[in-house]
Structure to design on (105 residues):
């Protein structure tokens, strides 16, 4: 199983094994990462927003669609490598990727 690292708001990191096919948001919620995920992955909010910490890994992710881009406009702490984690499915290619939980407003 691929391993994903989440960098929490307090700077601590947790690396977890992720099941292929799940969304990164589901993996985060299952492992008590401090995101809200209010719409439960229906692409109706931006509360699962995280920052991919490596530009190369960000560039290798599937492209965003227009709906994700629109929702990201609502996210606090938006960066050039921000994504909604509900829109990223776990695959073996994600092994070793690192996500930063953005600071609260």
């Amino acid at each position: 199983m691929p391993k994903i690292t989440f960098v929490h708001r307090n700077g601590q990191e947790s690396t977890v094994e992720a099941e292929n096919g799940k969304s990164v948001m589901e993996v985060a919620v299952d492992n008590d990462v401090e995101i809200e995920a209010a719409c439960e992955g229906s692409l109706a909010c931006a509360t699962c927003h995280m920052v991919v910490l490596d530009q190369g890994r960000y560039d290798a992710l599937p492209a965003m669609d227009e709906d994700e881009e629109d929702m990201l406009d609502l996210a606090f702490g938006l960066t050039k490598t921000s994504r909604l984690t509900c829109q990223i499915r776990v695959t073996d290619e994600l092994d070793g990727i690192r996500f930063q939980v953005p600071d609260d407003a």
